[in-house]
Every structure is written in structure tokens, then in C-alpha cells.
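Standup notes
- HV: blocked on the assembly model, inputs below
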Amino acid sequence: MRRIAILTSGGDAPGMNGAIRAVVRKSLYYGYEVYGIERGYEGLIQGNFRKMDSASVAGIIQRGGTVLKTARSKDYRTTEGFNKALRNLKEYGIFCVVVIGGDGSMAGARKLTEAGINTVVIPGTIDNDMAGTDYTIGFDTALNTALEAVNKIRDTVESHSRVAIIEVMGRSAGHIALMTGLACGAEKILLPEEKVDLDSVCRKLSETYKRGKRYSIIVVAEGAASGYDVAKAIKEKTEFDASVTVLGYIQRGGSPSAKDNIMASRMGSAAVDAIAENHMNCLVGANMGEIVLLDYETAVHVVRGVNKKLHQLAGILSL
Ligand code: F6P
């Protein structure tokens, strides 16, 4: 009897529960035993394993967050912590660990693979910034949450003739900012991948003011600039008053969108198929809408930057 373990790691993302459900139920379909590990790699070290059955994943697909909880484990980076994790996996007789998370979580899975433990990674992060996959579970929900927030803020800044600066998540990747900006028709989108020139932002706003535009939307990724610094420059250098909204964890919570739960179900199922076919130690990725398996080495070398053409398009359409 094969024993599968599953954990979620790093930042939670809407749709992680759908992926957990798919992994558990597809494993049971193959006749495998499944253990949920609570609090990611931290729980792996602490031995927080619990046996899961069909009922343990009932009624979770519509919930945000992760029922297995998550953590960013410092101990896992230490030899002592890592060896403890290995001992626990051996004690439970785990054949393969399914990890749901982002780049850091994948690095953690690779470490296990290098130590002789089978792993499969399902991409789960709202940032959509993982090498080797076009899509990460949680991005669509986060994007729609951000868009809904911007559209509400727009009503107020339009009424008050102000500039709205909306700071979204993305420390090193601007996918949420870019797609939110394109979807809401933002006048400016500031991305961590590109140099931020606040003088040029102010010049553009002053031009729009002269043309009679009395409010504007600026979407800024947290890794590009602080929304407050952008507001300060605008107040000092343009005719506009500016207000800042930092969306923060609002983007990470909430019920998953249809797309996220569909991707979670497909990717979760594909992860267990990969185990059944003995094709492990890989990332379950999306490529042009199809589910693909990429070994870790290949996955980390497939660079996934922001789509610069879409950034240009957003600029042209917001003139
Ligand atoms: O989940 C991804 C992400 O939200 C990033 O956009 C952000 O920089 C980071 O996680 C912050 O997470 P935390 O507050 O949990 O450290």
C-alpha cells in the first residue's frame, strides 16, 4: 500500500483546499493511504501528521486559506531540522510527498528528492511567478479581488477628483499589478521588474489633468515602490490630491474563483496520476492550458517574467 503525504507551504492561496481535496480523493481512488501534514515543513519536522479520508476534505473546496495550515520554516533549513523531517517521513513509511506552494516550497521539495524521498509539487501562490508554469493556483482569485477593490475605490476618487494609488502584493513579481492594471484601465502600473520613474508618472498625470481628466488610477506592486512614496510625489509635483490603499492580505483570502478550483482539481489529480505512473520529483505545471510535468531542474530554468507587451498595451489604452 502506497502512503502519500500532503502539505501546504509558504503564503496561503485560494484554491489550495481544492488541490488538497483533489490529492486526497484521487489517492483514495487509487487505493493509497493519505496523510496530511499540518503547517508545512514545520509540521514535517514536528511530526504533525494526520490520516485523511474522504470526509476530511468534505466541504472545503469553497474555502480560502488552507485547512492544512501553512508556515515559513526556518528549522527546515538547518541540518538538524531537515534530518528530523526525514526521520518522520521514514517512520510513517511515506512513498511520496505532495507539496503545494511557491518557489520556496519547491526548493524544499527538491531538498527531499535529493535526500531520496519522492516529491511532486503543485504550484500554489497568488503571485503567479513560478518558473516552469504559466499558472499558479490562487492568482485568478487574487486578481479578481484586487480588481473589485479598485473598481470600488474608483467611485470615490472619481467623486473627489483624486488619484488613487492601489498597492498590491508582489515583492519581486508584478503579475498581480500588471493584470489588475490592465483589467481596470489604470493610468500607470508600477512593476518590480521595471525601473520606477516617479517624475515620469507625475508628468503623465499633469498631462492628463491638462486634458481635463480629474481622477486617475495607479496600481503599484509592493516590490516596485511604496504606495505612500508614490502619493507623496504626486501631491508635491502635480495638481492632484492622492489617496493610498494597500490591499494586503485581502488579496490572499476569500473563496476561490471557478478558475482556481478547476486548476486545483486538475493539478491535484495530475499530481497523483504522476505518482501512479512513477513519474515523480517534478512540478505539475500549466502550459497553454494543458497540464504538464516538468522535472525540477527544467522547471527552475524556465524564466517567467511579466508580459512586457501587455504592459505597453495597458499604457496605450490608458492615454
Ligand atoms: O503569497 C505571496 C505573497 O503574498 C507575496 O506577494 C508577498 O510579498 C508575500 O507573500 C508576503 O507574505 P507574508 O506576509 O506571509 O510573509
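- HV (later): unblocked. Residues 3-138+256-299 form a domain with the Rossmann fold fold (CATH 3.40.50.450). The longest strand covers residues 162-168.
- Next: hand off to the docking folks.
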